[in-house]
Automatic annotation (TrEMBL):
Member of the two-component regulatory system NreB/NreC involved in the control of dissimilatory nitrate/nitrite reduction in response to oxygen. NreB functions as a direct oxygen sensor histidine kinase which is autophosphorylated, in the absence of oxygen, probably at the conserved histidine residue, and transfers its phosphate group probably to a conserved aspartate residue of NreC. NreB/NreC activates the expression of the nitrate (narGHJI) and nitrite (nir) reductase operons, as well as the putative nitrate transporter gene narT. Its main location: cytoplasm. Keywords: 4Fe-4S, ATP-binding, Cytoplasm, Iron, Iron-sulfur, Kinase, Membrane, Metal-binding, Nucleotide-binding, Phosphoprotein, Transferase, Transmembrane, Transmembrane helix, Two-component regulatory system. GO terms for biological process: regulation of DNA-templated transcription. Gene3D superfamilies: 1.20.5.1930, Histidine kinase-like ATPase, C-terminal domain (3.30.565.10), PAS domain (3.30.450.20). SMART domains: HATPase_c, PAC, PAS. It is an enzyme of class 2 (transferase). Its cofactor is [4Fe-4S] cluster. The keyword Aminoacyl-tRNA synthetase does not apply. PROSITE patterns: HIS_KIN (PS50109), PAC (PS50113), PAS (PS50112). It is found in: Cytoplasm. One of its GO terms (molecular function) is 4 iron, 4 sulfur cluster binding. This is Oxygen sensor histidine kinase NreB.
């Protein structure tokens, strides 16, 4: 329903003074001038006395009527204001209920904490019996989260952090624990700037935390696959000091994982004759080059020399920096009887990598949908109601707090939308490769100011899901690499589908680099994923670049039309 703005009314003291002054002015004027008029009009004392009596009665009735009207107007205004305040409170409660937010209000130095009914319901309590205190909140925190949660709130109050937001588990009424996100802001301070009052919200994020936990479990399963892999596998730091190795690796070289931990492969596995070749491979891995495949001689624990085929891959952190290396070794010393085993190992490795990528895309898609469909819609509802409240807020303090809440909400919605789209754009699943690439290229061009030309998508309909995913990720990584490292003025993205083969070409006019250089620049980051996706899809991958002459990426992927899809 539409709401009218709450107009500021006069203070009660001022209103009462106005009524009193009006009454005094009317009374004084009536008494003075009515007697003078009667004295001029009537000369007979008896008639004058009688008229003064009627004049007094008229004055009493008229002033009574006037006072009644003024009091009635005052009470009507007060009642209208109370009704509008009740409407605003109802709208605010609807906003909190729609987004499942709970409100808390803490006056520092007081033990009690005011909370909305939603807080009690979040925790599984009846609102009419739930009473929040600082001590009860501390006792409700999960033992593993208690000290950190208290420290974050204390740091905010003491000015060591500019914003307060914390995630922790709280005990429910039934004894179980759920994850909550708490955020708040100081709204009152004393003359010395010390906080007096903090207002904040609770948001139940248990389902989102569980989604991240499922992703972690997927990664643990991938680790288990590596442990069970019949191919020797070792993880090292960027200096090739061993972190750990799998049982197959221990069997090949005769070392236990504990014996190799912290030791360099140059001191244990690599003979002097292969050191120079291996150092070149290490430099390429440090630069993020995935294509670090080599064959060289190695030494076992008992001194035997064996010939191994190595497949090396850099491991990156969230910022794309190479932090560790993973190397897989196959003993090919007795290759005359092991060609079939080698082929089987290659096949199992490819199947494992494909399955891992599929699991990753599924988890990304699931998490993206949860972020967009659940949290995004709920926050949008809050934003809508906050806009309505802001237009109708009466006080400057209330309006400022609502404006600040809207700013926080807009930033949160934008970040959640960006995170969901980064995980997996829904347009790729709903409309296919062509519209998804058009949306992505347009968005990148608008954000960066670089001209991105997309061609060849008009005649491409829906393709099988693996081909669409691989093609989109290759284009995405290529464009990101160009924008991040090459400083181009133009990027061209072209697609062509011929005889079941999808050809992707991404080229830029940036400063380029030397692919054969020792330590490649940052443009090599991302090549691992692109090459792996293309090869696992049964296709090919090619990269070309030269300093000052730009870079191109060429990928060919087998692709078939999706059954029942429109062309």
């Amino acid at each position: 329903m539409p709401y009218r703005s709450l107009r500021a009314s006069a203070p009660p003291g001022r209103l009462a003074l106005s009524i009193a002054l009006i009454y005094a002015a009317l009374s004084t004027g009536w008494i003075i001038y009515s007697d003078r008029l009667l004295a001029v009009w009537l000369r007979d004392p008896v008639q004058l006395t009688e008229m003064q009596t009627w004049k007094g009665l008229f004055f009493v009735f008229s002033t009574t009527l006037l006072v009644w009207a003024m009091i009635r107007y005052g009470f009507a205004s007060l009642w209208s204001l109370q009704q509008r305040l009740a409407d605003r409170e109802a709208a605010f409660r609807v906003a909190l209920h729609a987004t499942r937010l709970g409100l808390w209000d803490y006056r520092i130095g007081h033990g009690a904490v005011d909370t909305s009914e939603a807080v009690a319901r979040m925790l599984g309590h009846a609102p009419e019996t739930f009473r929040e205190t600082v001590g009860a909140w501390v006792e409700r925190l999960h033992p593993e989260d208690r000290e950190l949660a208290r420290a974050r709130f204390r740091n905010y109050l003491e000015g060591r952090t500019r914003e307060y937001a914390s995630e922790y588990r709280m005990r429910m009424a039934d004894g179980s624990y759920r994850w909550f996100r708490s955020a708040g802001e100081v709204i009152e301070r004393d003359p010395q700037g010390r906080p007096l009052r903090v207002i904040g919200t609770y948001l139940d994020i248990h389902e989102q935390v569980e989604s991240f936990r499922r992703i972690a479990e997927s990664e643990a399963r991938a680790r288990l696959y590596l442990e069970r892999m019949p191919i020797g596998c070792v993880i090292t730091d960027t200096d090739w000091k061993v972190v750990e190795c799998n049982p197959a690796f221990q069997q090949i070289f005769g070392y236990s994982s504990e014996e190799l931990a912290g030791r360099s492969v140059f001191d244990t596995l690599i003979p002097d004759s292969a050191r120079a070749q291996t150092e070149v491979v290490l430099e390429r891995l440090r630069a993020g080059n995935f294509d670090a495949h080599n064959v060289n001689e190695n030494i076992t624990r008992d001194g035997r020399r064996i010939l191994c085929e190595w497949f090396n891959t850099p491991i990156r952190d969230a910022n794309g920096e190479v932090t560790q290396l993973i190397a897989m070794a196959i003993d090919i010393s007795a290759r005359d009887g092991g060609e079939r085993a080698l082929a089987d190992s290659h096949r199992r490795l490819s199947e494992l990598s494909a399955r891992l990528m599929q699991i990753q895309e599924e988890e990304r898609g699931r998490l993206a949908r949860e972020l967009h469909d659940e949290i995004g819609q709920q926050l949008a509802a809050v934003q809508f109601n906050l806009h309505a409240l802001a237009h109708e807020a009466s006080g400057d303090g209330s309006r400022a707090r609502l404006d600040d809440c809207m700013g926080i909400m807009e930033t949160t919605i934008r970040r959640i939308r960006d995170r969901a789209l980064d995980l997996r754009p829904s347009m790729l699943d709903d409309l296919g490769l062509g519209p998804a690439l058009a949306w992505y290229c347009q968005g990148q061009a608008e954000r960066t100011g670089v001209k991105i030309v997309l061609s060849g998508v008009e005649g491409i309909g829906r393709l099988d899901e693996p081909a669409e995913t691989a093609a989109f990720r290759i284009v995405q990584e290529s464009v990101n690499n160009a924008l991040r490292h090459a400083q181009p003025a133009r990027i061209g993205v072209s697609l062509q589908l011929t005889d079941g083969v999808l050809t992707l070409r991404i080229e830029d006019d940036g400063h380029g680099f030397d692919p054969g250089g020792g330590r490649a620049p940052g443009a090599h980051l991302g090549l691992a994923g692109m090459r792996e996706r293309a090869e696992l899809a049964g296709g090919s991958f090619e990269l070309g670049s030269a300093p000052g002459r730009g870079t191109y990426v060429l990928a060919r992927l087998p692709a078939t039309g999706r059954s029942g899809a429109a062309g």
